[in-house]
Design a protein that fits this description.
The chain has one domain: Aldolase class I (TIM Barrel). It is α/β, with parallel strands linked by helices. Helix 1 runs parallel beside helix 3 and helix 3 runs parallel beside helix 4. A nine-stranded mixed beta sheet has the order 1-2-3-7-8-9-10-11-12. Strands 4-6-5 form a three-stranded antiparallel beta sheet, with no helix packed on it. Keywords: Signal.
Length: about 270
């Protein structure tokens, strides 16, 4: 009898997939178009907003916080970076040096990841398992459009599509909804794999129309705008919000730090 020996890292990946909680087909949360939401990734989460969905940090948020939000009728999306290494995360030591690329512009404590790496994918599987353990209804993996950036690695658009579809499939296997973060150029290719989109400054950067495909499929677009003029000038904010309502987007005006210091919603 021939015995096949697997490398330890491959064996761990196989076991993780085998023992992960699997759900029946289509058995996960699907947020509706024009869903109301709150997005806060830093500071003590303000639980008082009348929003159907909260998007909060996976690592910084306790299971008790998540359960408390759900007990008040809210769904909870848990944020983590899937395309960058953050040196303050509790699993930072699990990344191999060879998988760490260039530092992100404006984010000195983050480095791009080699999304082709099996070890990176194993870590993301464990993060999805953590989301299940904490009771998240879904996830928002960030930095999933790094193929357009000088990361220090030579991967291309097809590698990004493969990685993003891997994340979506693994999330769905665990009964988790998953959102496509930014990445307007691949929205059309990925809309069937993801349950919603999360965009930043799509009105400011004239990228919103790329995400209309989500609305046409009955999937919401959660958009955040950071321009100070939307905070200070009511007429400017109202004009932008009218565009958002016409497109059926769920747009918030938020602080760029996403620290909960203020929130203005375009939805009623």
């Amino acid at each position: 009898m021939r015995v096949v020996l697997f490398p330890f890292s491959v064996l761990c990946l196989l076991l993780s997939s085998f023992f992960s909680p699997l759900y029946a087909a289509n058995d996960w949360y699907r947020p509706p178009v024009s869903v109301t939401w709150q997005w806060q990734l830093d500071g003590v989460v303000n639980e008082a907003y009348d929003a159907e969905l909260y998007d909060i940090d996976l690592f910084a948020s306790s299971a008790e916080l998540i359960q408390g939000l759900q007990a008040s009728g809210k769904k909870v999306i848990c944020y983590f970076s899937a395309g960058s290494y953050e040196d303050w995360r509790p699993d930072a030591a699990e990344f191999a040096d060879k998988d760490l690329g260039k530092t992100l512009s404006g984010w000195d404590d983050e480095r791009w990841l080699d999304i082709r790496s099996s070890q990176v994918r194993e870590i993301m599987i464990r993060r999805l398992d953590l989301a299940v353990q904490k009771g998240c209804d879904g996830v928002e993996p960030d930095r999933v459009d790094s193929y357009r950036t000088n990361t220090g690695f030579s991967f291309r658009a097809n590698n990004q599509l493969d990685y993003n579809r891997f994340l979506a499939a693994q999330a769905h296997q665990r009964g988790l909804a998953i959102g496509l973060k930014n990445n307007p150029d691949q929205a059309l290719s990925l809309v069937d794999d993801f349950d919603f989109a999360v965009t930043e400054q799509c009105f400011e950067h004239s990228q919103c129309r790329s995400f209309n495909v989500f609305i046409s499929k009955g999937k919401p677009v959660l958009n955040a705008e950071y321009r100070r003029i939307y905070v200070d000038d009511e007429a400017q904010r109202n004009a932008m919000c009218q565009q958002s309502l016409t497109m059926a987007f769920s747009t918030l005006v938020l602080p760029v730090a996403l620290d909960g210091t203020f929130r203005m919603s375009c939805l009623p």
